[in-house]
């Protein structure tokens, strides 16, 4: 919808269209003529188009598997159609409530505390006048962004392992009892949130710092003349000025709230069934429905039903979030 | 801006202290794994991992270099996947972004939407997996580690907006001089797009280097296991051991520990080593990429 508006209102575009129409005179139709005329350009785009056709659009068709009694030999299209049976099983097993809650709850924690720390660190970095210090702090904070979730899994393990971990070493060192972290699921939303903050604090603070640097400096100068304190400057100029960025990034993150971070959860929790109560998200559940051992649910039907639900709910929330972004600020809408 | 004249005297002190604390917290996991990799196996098992070990030993690294743990073969796989994957990814992404940036292309809005829609909706893990394994027969193929993540739709839009900033006259003059579209793209457009190419290449490189996901799904043959998946595999018994609380369980667990804790730690260090090594050189490109990504999307 949006695209039609831009292409029909933009001046130079219309000229091009006109030129094309003139060039295509006598040929059957505009689009086919254009495909022929610009064939070398279209050919250049073909590998990319094929990629999306195969790896994005074909799996979309494959969603029908959620309505089938899948077996490997008959494949997706040959297997028997069973309507909403898979969804019924999924709801009856009550798994869907747990995994949906965990996905939404963990993502909400990540968005809330992630943003808090990213904005906070950006504000702190902005007040640093020693360039070397700023550079070192920023480098240290950004480093976790470069590390794979597998490695993060190692880090988390050696901090929280019962016998060999750093945390219990510290606890016993100060005279407290060690905690069996890996057998108590209640600690893990907190641990995962801290891990998330750790991984993304540097990355997010770069974005917010860029927004802060872009603020009109004259505002600060006149506020200082009026005798504003540092706190007032942050409270009444900096924060309101970067609010659009905060809002937009938060909305985009909310748009993806039905998608759990598979790489993170899978590498930190692994097959530890004891922790599934608070950590099992839709993505890890779907994975276990057809792959892997240990806590496998052993039903590709229920897994694909959960996956299909995720696709549709995810689609709707992303659309809503994008509409909200567009309403909030036209410039930031991706499309 | 000299706002610091007006601030509370304690403000900069608290500020520097907080940032030092956060920076230290960001680095501590790296440091404990690094010092753990130099710790004696017995010391780890008896006292746990420490920031400052009592004794240093190179045993774990020696073990990895002398025994064939598969680490170096995995290095080979990852280097191949990263180099070939990044080159193909950047070319394919660049070409499609360029096509949808040229005003003369009538279907450019349709193509943009075709790409954009994949960011809104997807078929999910199971149809994707079945497609790759059953229909494309990609199990245990080196291409399974590259093709499924060949193009990131987000980068298409980053590159498109860069290409849109290039004057169209440049392309037209190339065409008038008799060059084909492909030649114009490779010889004129790409050379003047070095900044965005560097940024996008590095993002792809990092993604290929750090990928374990594709290997998890598609690879179980030893000679195709990339670095991250190698690390994942030698760790995957750890959590089971950690959750085995009974005396009997841990006794059994202690007998099956092989490769040992310190070897795992040393493997982790060798996995992230190259990234730490190039980090000072590539950091600024990433900061630039993160910033333009945020502005555009």
Please provide a written account of the structure.
- Chain A folds into two domains: 62 residues, no CATH class; 244 residues, MetI-like (MetI-like fold, Orthogonal Bundle).
- Chain A contains 17 helices and two strands.
- Chain A is globular.
- The N terminus of chain A is likely disordered.
- In chain A, helix 11 packs across helix 13 and helix 16 packs antiparallel against helix 17.
- In chain A, strands 1-2 form a two-stranded antiparallel ribbon.
- Chain A has 335 residues and is mostly helical.
- With 297 residues, chain B is mainly alpha-helical.
- Chain B has two domains: 57 residues, no CATH class; 197 residues, MetI-like fold (Orthogonal Bundle), CATH 1.10.3720.
- Helix content of chain B is 72%, strand content 0%.
- Chain B is globular, with a radius of gyration of 25 Å.
- The two termini of chain B are 29 Å apart.
- The relative contact order of chain B is 0.12.
- The interface between A and B is large, with 127 and 117 residues.
Please give the CATH class of the largest domain in chain B: Mainly Alpha
**Major sheet of chain A: order of its strands?**
1-2
How far the N terminus sits from the C terminus of chain B, by CA atoms, comes to: 29 Å
Relevant CATH superfamily of the largest domain in chain A: MetI-like
The best one-word shape of chain B is globular
**Low-pLDDT stretches of chain A:** 1-27
Could you provide a short overview of the structure?
Chain A is mainly α.
Structure keywords:
heterodimer; A: mainly alpha; MetI-like fold; two-stranded antiparallel sheet; 2 strands; globular; B: 297 residues; 2 domains; 15 helices
Walk me through the topology.
The complex is a heterodimer of chains A (335) and B (297).
Chain A (H helix, E strand, L loop, with lengths): L1 H8 L1 H13 L6 H8 L1 H23 L6 E2 L5 H4 L1 E2 L3 H8 L2 H32 L4 H12 L6 H12 L5 H8 L14 H26 L3 H9 L4 H26 L6 H8 L6 H4 L2 H9 L9 H29 L7
Antiparallel strand pairs in A: 1-2
Chain B lengths: L9 H28 L3 H7 L11 H8 L4 H29 L8 H13 L4 H11 L17 H12 L3 H9 L4 H12 L1 H17 L2 H6 L8 H9 L2 H6 L3 H10 L4 H36 L1
Helix pairs in contact in B: 1-15, 3-15, 4-7, 4-10, 4-12, 5-7, 8-9, 10-15, 12-15
């Amino acid at each position: 919808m949006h695209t039609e508006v831009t292409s029909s209102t933009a001046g130079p575009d219309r000229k091009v269209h006109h030129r094309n129409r003139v060039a295509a005179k006598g040929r059957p139709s505009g689009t086919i003529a254009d495909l022929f005329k610009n064939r070398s350009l279209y050919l250049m785009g073909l590998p990319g188009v094929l990629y999306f056709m195969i790896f994005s659009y074909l799996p979309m068709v494959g969603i029908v598997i959620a309505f089938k009694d899948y077996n490997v030999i008959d494949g997706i299209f040959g297997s028997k159609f069973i309507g909403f049976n898979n969804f019924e099983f999924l709801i009856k097993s009550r798994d869907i409530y747990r995994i949906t809650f965990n996905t939404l709850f963990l993502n909400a924690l990540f968005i809330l505390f992630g943003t808090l720390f990213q904005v906070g660190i950006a504000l702190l970095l902005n007040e640093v006048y020693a360039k070397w210090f700023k550079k070192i702090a920023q480098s240290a904070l950004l480093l976790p962004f470069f590390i794979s979730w597998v490695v993060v899994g190692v880090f988390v393990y050696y901090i929280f392992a019962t016998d060999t971990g750093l945390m219990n070493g510290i606890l016993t060192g100060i005279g407290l009892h060690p905690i069996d972290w890996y057998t108590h699921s209640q600690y893990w939303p907190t641990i995962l949130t801290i891990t998330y903050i750790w991984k993304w604090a540097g990355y997010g603070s770069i974005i917010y710092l860029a927004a802060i640097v872009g603020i009109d400096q004259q505002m600060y100068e006149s506020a200082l003349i009026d005798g504003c304190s540092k706190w007032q400057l942050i409270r009444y100029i900096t924060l309101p000025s970067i609010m659009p960025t905060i809002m937009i990034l938060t909305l985009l993150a909310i748009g993806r709230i039905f998608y759990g971070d598979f790489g993170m959860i899978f590498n930190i929790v692994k097959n530890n069934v004891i922790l599934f109560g608070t950590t099992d998200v839709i993505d890890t559940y779907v994975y276990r429905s057809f792959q892997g051992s240990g806590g496998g649910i052993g039903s590709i039907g229920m897994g694909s039903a959960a996956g299909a639900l995720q696709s549709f709910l995810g689609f709707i929330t992303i659309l809503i979030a994008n509409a909200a972004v567009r309403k909030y600020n036209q410039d930031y809408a991706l499309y | 801006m000299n706002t610091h004249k007006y601030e509370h005297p304690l403000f900069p002190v608290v500020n520097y202290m907080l940032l030092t604390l956060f920076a230290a917290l960001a680095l501590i996991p790296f440091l404990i794994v690094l010092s753990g990799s130099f710790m004696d196996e017995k010391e780890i098992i008896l006292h746990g991992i420490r920031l400052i070990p009592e004794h240093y030993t190179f045993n774990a690294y020696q073990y990895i270099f002398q025994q064939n743990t598969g680490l170096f073969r995995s290095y080979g796989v990852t280097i191949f996947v990263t180099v070939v994957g990044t080159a193909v990814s950047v070319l394919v992404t660049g070409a499609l972004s360029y096509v949808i940036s040229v005003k003369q292309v009538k279907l450019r809005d349709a193509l943009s939407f075709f790409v954009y829609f994949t960011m809104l909706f997807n078929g999910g893990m199971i149809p994707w997996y079945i497609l790759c394994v059953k229909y494309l027969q990609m199990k245990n193929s080196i291409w399974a580690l590259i093709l499924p993540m060949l193009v990131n739709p987000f980068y298409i839009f980053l590159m498109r907006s860069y290409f849109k900033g290039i004057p169209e006259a440049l392309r037209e003059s190339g065409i008038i001089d008799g060059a084909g579209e492909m030649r114009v793209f490779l010889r004129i457009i790409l050379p003047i797009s070095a900044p965005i190419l560097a940024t996008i290449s590095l993002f792809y490189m990092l993604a290929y280097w750090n990928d374990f996901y594709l290997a998890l799904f598609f690879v179980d043959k030893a000679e195709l296991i990339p670095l991250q998946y190698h690390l994942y595999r030698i760790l995957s018994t750890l959590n089971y051991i950690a959750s085995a609380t009974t005396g009997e369980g841990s006794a059994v667990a202690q007998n099956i520990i092989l490769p040992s804790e310190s070897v795992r730690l040393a493997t982790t260090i060798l996995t992230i080593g190259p990234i730490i090594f190039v980090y000072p050189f590539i950091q600024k490109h990433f900061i630039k990429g993160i910033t333009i990504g945020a502005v555009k999307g």
